[in-house]
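Minutes, structural biology subgroup

Action item carried over from last meeting: produce the structure token record for uracil phosphoribosyltransferase (Lentzea fradiae). EB confirmed the sequence was re-checked against the source entry. Recorded below for completeness.
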Amino acid sequence: MIEAYLEKNVHLLPQTNQLRAMHTIVRDRNASREDFVFYTERINRLLVEAGLDLLPFEPHDVTTPVGATYHGLKPAGRLVGVPVIRAGESMEAGLRAVVPAARIGKILIQRDKVTKLPKLYYANLPDDIASRHVLLLDPMLATGGTANAAIQVLLDHGVREENIVFVTFITVPEGVEAVCSRFPLVRIVTSAIEERLSEDAFMLPGIGDFGDRFFGTDD
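Output recorded by EB:
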């Protein structure tokens, strides 16, 4: 089923030996927090670069130091990064490293303890976000509940569906299906597609709780 979404909706980073080696380090349950942060940040930057490449560009010529003309490109629209608090904030540095002037919004969505459904608790977005392209940042796309809720928040603020690129570190076929079937114009960029979800909704083989491991709040 996921094959139908690859390339059209889902852009998987090239599975190079270098990328797999970094994944090997961060997936190791015995990895130090320092190694986890260092290597996930390296991969996050690759993800952000791939996400930016999906945004529109327009022709832009410049004169080179030897007086010749280079027929180049420049971004055709304005950008805003929107991390989903808290884990998504781990990807913010990767965006700032590539686009230092990028505007940043925030969304906080958590699962309601009673209904078990994702609930919006906080959103702080630029007033002109409807006219911008959005990189939505959240490192884990599992069931798709949080991702779909966050995308709906953006749509409710006037963002066009086709202007949203969801950047996630790791996902599973179930999450891809949940997002792409509901929002077919949203593009997803990821560094890994896992085998499946466990009965407890853990990704397999997985990476653990990304936010806890990145921010040092795991046991």
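Discussion: The two ends are 36 Å apart (CA to CA).
Next step: EB to file the record with the rest of the batch.
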